[in-house]
Amino acid sequence: MRLIALLILVTPGILAVYGIKLIRDALFGELQPLFLNLFLQGLSGVIFVIGGMGFIGGFILHRDRKRNKTKGRFESR
After folding, report:
1. What sign does the CA torsion over 7, 25, 20, 16 have?
2. How far is CA 2 from CA 52, 56, 58, 61, 65, in A?
3. The dihedral sign for the CA sequence 6, 55, 31, 24
4. For 42, which of 10, 23, 67, 72 is 20 to 30 Å away at the CA?
5. In 3-state terms, what secondary structure has residue 44?
6. Alpha-carbon gap, residue 45 to 76, rounded angstroms
7. What average pLDDT does the segment 4-18 reach?
8. What is the DSSP letter of 63?
9. pLDDT in tens, 14-70
10. Radius of gyration of the chain (CA)
11. How far apart are CA 70 and CA 57, in angstroms?
12. Roughly what angle, to the nearest 10 degrees, separates helices 2-27 and 38-66?
C-alpha cells in the first residue's frame, strides 16, 4: 500500500521536474521535438510545474488535516 502511495507522489514530482526542464530549454531557445514553438513549450512547462507542485501540496495538506496537525488554520468549513 505504501508503494502505491509513493508512486502516486513520485509521478507528479517527475512531471514538475520535467516542467522545469521545459522552461529552462525555452529560455535558452532549445525547442523540443514535441512542441511547435518556444512559447507553447514554456507555457506547458509552467503548467506542469504548477500542477505537479499543487498535487503534492494538496496531498500533504489532506494528510495533515486527516491527522489533525493543521491546528485549525486550514480547516474546511
Report:
1. negative
2. 20, 16, 18, 18, 19
3. negative
4. 10
5. helix
6. 31
7. 93
8. H
9. 999 999 999 999 999 999 999 999 999 999 999 999 999 999 999 989 988 888 888
10. 16
11. 13
12. 150
* Residue in the structure block whose three cell numbers are 509521478: 11
Asked whether 35 and 44 are in contact (CB, 8 A), the reply is yes
| 48-59 per-position pLDDT tens digit | 999 999 999 999
Place of cell 495533515: 64
> Positive or negative, the Cα torsion across 71, 11, 29, 31?
negative
List CB contacts of 11: < 8 A, sequence separation 6 or more. Answer: none
Specify the 3-state DSSP secondary structure of 3.
Answer: helix
pTM above 0.70, yes or no: yes
Helix (H) or strand (E) holding 52: helix 38-66
Q: What pLDDT, on a 0 to 100 scale, did the predictor assign at position 77? A: 61
